[in-house]
Amino acid sequence: MQIRPFRIEHYFAKHEFSARYLLSSSDAESRTIQDVLALEPGAHDQFLQHWCGYTEAPGAPPLRKAIAGIYPTAAPDDVLVMSSAEEGIFVVYNALLAPGDHAIVETPCFESGLEVARSTGADISEWRRRPQDDWAHDLDALRGLLRPTTRMLYICTPHNPTGLLMCREVFDAVVGLCRERGILLFCDEVFRELEHDPSTRLPAGCDAYEGAISLGSMSKTYGLPGLRLGWLVSRNRSVLRRCLEFKYYTTICSSGPSEFLTDLALRHRQVLIDRNLGIVHSNLALLETFFQQRSDLFAWVKPNASPMAFARFRPERDVMEFCDDLVRQAGVMLLPGIVYDEPRHIRFGTGRKSMPEALQRLSAYLEAKA
């Protein structure tokens, strides 16, 4: 297996735990274990009595039932619990792709969505969205990438890093193309349920198409990345069995305490969603005002989902240099777009309570440099 360095994680490893202000995080505001246990009477005592032995490899039955409840067409046997969405990406690609296969990946994307696919030896094409098109999807370009050997298409909606939701017409067309050709549709939906207008929510891939695999996570929308729990959902159970066979070589099973807390949180997930969506709405208004005041420096396509925005940096200055100087001088971390192969862009995060103060520090830095 040959795989390129994970640039996003390298940059976070360098600054995430030393910078005072994280202004580029893709997850929503987190909570304490005490907060999670307080969601349900009696949960605290049940947690203390929870057995710390091995769990079932596909996931604890109550947890799989809770996850299936998110998807109208899913049953618990359509769910495979993973130790994070990252493991889900790794398992899907390695279980289902091989040399001689062709796969298409929507880009820009979270780096593992592309690089793990490449590492399998399959031939990978990028369905690239472009800033000059306001990140619109080009369906003709997608059709032009299809081959007789195309086995899988990866999409991410709501999208990392732009924070844009795929429009329904494009989503339906993508599903139609995959169904017509028998292509597996791998839907990265870790930001689902954090649409800024819930009425715009798309069907999950696994609900829309029997050949789709939906990827979910506790990390982003629900703000509980420390639980390290994700899942795959698909009505194609032969696909899930192959993924399970590969999972036996990765983690075998997930953490029992994390499964307990995830089950509890998902039974009350609307509480988590409502709190985090409120934070995003408040922060997005601040960020919009900031960009209006700093239109000489930044341009953006306003996001409509997720806790992220992807802004173009207008000055003819190296973006990596700008971000490095900002975190050194002001303690504010932004993510340079080079990690998405978009070197003129910067990722902002809108899901943290600390964002107002972080924006103030960024503004003060810019004033000092003016």
Task: Describe the protein in words.
- By secondary structure, this protein is an alpha/beta fold.
- It contains 14 helices and 13 strands.
- The protein has a seven-stranded mixed sheet, sandwiched between helices.
- Helix 9 (205-208) links the parallel strand 6 (184-188) and strand 7.
- Helix 4 (61-68) packs parallel to helix 11 (256-267), helix 5 packs parallel to helix 6 and helix 5 (85-96) packs across helix 10 (237-247).
- The model has no long low-confidence stretch (mean pLDDT 97).
Secondary structure tally, helices = 14
| Approximate shape | globular
Radius of gyration: 20 Å
Helix content: 40-55%
* Main β-sheet description: 7 strands, mixed
Oligomeric composition of the shown chains: single chain
- Topology as a string of helices (H) and strands (E): HEHHHEHEHEHEHEHEEHHHEEHEEEH
Count of extended strands: 13
Question: Which secondary structure elements does this structure contain, and how are they paired or packed?
Answer:
Layout lengths: L6 H9 L5 E2 L10 H5 L5 H6 L12 H8 L10 E4 L2 H12 L5 E6 L3 H9 L3 E6 L10 H7 L4 E7 L11 H14 L2 E5 L16 H4 L3 E6 L12 E4 L3 H11 L8 H12 L1 H25 L4 E3 L7 E6 L5 H12 L1 E2 L1 E2 L8 E5 L5 H15 L1
Parallel strand pairs: 1-11, 3-4, 3-5, 5-6, 6-7
Antiparallel strand pairs: 2-8, 7-8, 9-10, 10-13, 12-13
Helix pairs in contact: 4-11, 5-6, 5-10, 12-14
